[in-house]
Amino acid sequence: MMNKSIQLNERVNLTKSQINVLRKQGQVPAIVYGKDIGSISVIIGEKEISSIIKHNPRAILNASIPNQGNKPVLIQNIQRDSLSNKIVHVDFHQLNMNVSMDSKVTINFTGDPIGVKEGGTLQVEMYEVEVRCMPDNLLSAYEVDISGLKIGDQLHVSDLSFHEGIEVLSDASSMLIKITQANAEEAVVSA
Description:
CATH architecture of the largest domain: Beta Barrel
Strand order of the largest sheet: 1-5-6-7-3-4-2
Number of strands: 14
Order of helices and strands: EEHEEHEEEEHEEEEEEH
CATH class of the largest domain: Mainly Beta
Number of helices: 4
């Protein structure tokens, strides 16, 4: 479901210094690409794209694209300045809402595991899984309650149960998190 409209403005053959001036004026250079439209250079307001990323970085957006009209797009890649963390470039992927797509879904772990309360350590191995689904079925995040996990417990990709229409592409045996004994490493070293 497209839950936000955005305006993308045309960007034509600008020099690096002209692009830097645009950035100082609160504009972010971007590109929109897709099977139907090819590749189009655009700009978007920094406040607008920052707000979208903050609220739902995997939202399907209704983008007004110069000379193309409105098209559904997904944020494919975000480049940030390594020092300031400001957005310097965005890649949008134009979607066909009638064709399945591959994407990543963020896993949000909720609850305080029993094992951590008992002195164990929570180790997160993966924060997202790759899925294939129709664009309308794409989740921005998937919540997993880990409050019941004890020391020695592990959570694998195979333990996740997405709703019908979402195929998990990540290896089912991949570990998401585990609860380890806090001093397990010390015991191995001293043995």
